């Protein structure tokens, strides 16, 4: 079994989901008392978020690159970033280490392609929906990516930051997101990517008619394939 390196703290709730899912996945696949071999470097979300708001992306990249180098030095065989937003600096992090980086955008694209689809809708926090870095990474695999109109981005942020990050799962918010899914479907999306770990707590396959691609679940499964393969 390979050792999985994790850059966490982005948020710590997301990191906890990754840690739990990786261990549950190893136990399901191997049985017995098996658990995942992981090394995590957890950063301060407030620090990197402040830098993000100031558009100091080189500083963000150095913090996350240092975290990547630390897990590599501790013996990790490959690296994951437990975040969507901060994949904006994924290339800089990848260049800072000599182990492979399992990029979330590539994992999603592989899953979409495996289902024979060429277009998806993406619902995430506002930053990955409003900046091209994540959409473009998926699109580089020949997939058309639709995002909700900018007028809806703040509503999604509110659901994630004011509710889900505090453990609140609200039915009215689920209905709001399902309404966005219908708009994406009308725009041509043939599947739906949930690009935030927290959104997987709120929207499930039985809530929508489009095939669902939960980013964190797919990321974890791809990591398990690599670690156990």
Could you characterize the architecture of this molecule?
This protein has 229 residues and is an alpha/beta fold. The chain folds into two domains: 4-102, 3-Layer(aba) Sandwich (Rossmann fold); 104-214, Rossmann fold. It is 52% helix and 12% strand. A four-stranded parallel β-sheet has the order 5-4-6-7, with helices on both faces. Strands 2-1-3 form a three-stranded parallel β-sheet, with helices on both faces. Helix 1 (12-30) links the parallel strand 1 and strand 2 (38-42).
Overview features:
alpha/beta; Rossmann fold; three-stranded parallel sheet; 52% helix
CA radius of gyration is 17 Å
Biggest β-sheet strands, sense, barrel: 4 strands, parallel
Total E-strand runs: 7
CATH fold descriptor of the largest domain: Rossmann fold
Q: Quick check: average pLDDT? A: 95
List the helices and strands and how they pair.
Elements: E1 4-8, H1 12-30, E2 38-42, H2 45-53, H3 57-73, E3 78-81, H4 90-96, H5 104-114, E4 119-123, H6 126-130, H7 132-139, E5 144-146, H8 153-163, H9 171-187, E6 192-194, E7 212-214, H10 215-228
Parallel strand pairs: 1-2, 1-3, 4-5, 4-6, 6-7
Helix pairs in contact: 1-10, 3-4, 5-7, 5-10
Q: How would you briefly describe this protein structure?
A:
With 229 residues, the chain is α/β, with parallel strands linked by helices. The chain is built from 10 helices and 7 strands.
């Amino acid at each position: 079994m390979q050792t999985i390196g994790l850059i966490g703290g982005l948020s710590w709730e997301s990191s906890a989901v990754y840690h739990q899912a990786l261990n549950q996945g190893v136990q399901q696949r191997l049985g017995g008392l098996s658990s995942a071999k992981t090394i995590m470097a957890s950063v301060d979300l407030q620090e990197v978020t402040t830098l993000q708001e100031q558009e100091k992306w080189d500083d963000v990249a150095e913090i996350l690159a240092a975290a990547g180098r630390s897990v590599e030095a501790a013996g990790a065989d490959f690296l994951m970033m437990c975040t969507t937003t901060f994949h904006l600096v994924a290339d800089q992090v990848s260049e800072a280490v000599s182990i492979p980086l399992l990029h979330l955008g590539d994992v999603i694209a592989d899953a979409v392609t495996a289902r024979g689809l060429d277009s998806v809708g993406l619902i995430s926090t506002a930053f990955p929906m409003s900046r091209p870095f994540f959409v473009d990474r998926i699109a580089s695999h020949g997939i058309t990516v639709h995002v909700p109109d900018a007028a809806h981005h703040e509503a999604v942020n509110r659901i994630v930051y004011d509710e889900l990050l505090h453990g609140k799962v609200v039915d009215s918010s689920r209905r709001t997101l399902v309404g966005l899914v219908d708009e994406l479907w009308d725009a041509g999306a043939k599947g739906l990517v949930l690009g935030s770990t927290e959104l997987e707590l709120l929207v499930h396959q039985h809530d929508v008619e489009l095939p669902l691609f939960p980013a964190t679940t797919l990321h974890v499964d791809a990591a398990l394939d690599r670690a156990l393969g």
